[in-house]
Amino acid sequence: MGVDAGAPAAYLLGSGGAAVLNFPLWKASAMAQSGFGPRGGSYASAYAAALRPPYRGVASVVLGMTWARFAIFYGSDVGRAELEKTEAFRGTTAAVALPPLATATFVQCVNQPIIRGSVSLQDPNAAERTLAGALRRVAAERGVRGLWRGLGAGQGRCVFRARSFQSEHPRVESAPRDHRP
What pTM was computed for the model? Predict the structure, then answer.
């Protein structure tokens, strides 16, 4: 299982497209989990609310999602290919599991402050208008460690998603072309 030289562009394009398409879902989830959104409505009403202003933090969220997805999926595939070059890892669960575990953990640690600030920007009553302002407020209220609040849950979710993709990817790659989903 190799990764071809043109792959980074494809991974980046796919990651960016997914980030743009998933932004409203992310915003609806962030608003609901933080108590900023409408209460007791349907999924459709929550999604509709996420499509309405404020649009603060859109660039940081989309760029954060893009680089994170790119790093996790491309890094996982490259890491697996590198591990499988050695006899000890060829065809092993470790070759499939370790790269997404390592890349997803790194990405989540780097992205957590961006996520934390971006979520607070979705509050319609937030005084901050920029990611930098939101990060300063979180650090002032909770200390610098507050920027990484929720990191454990985020890592678990991120690693699980990356691992799920990795377990399905080889099956699709090895399936006959006329039987691929």
Answer: 0.73
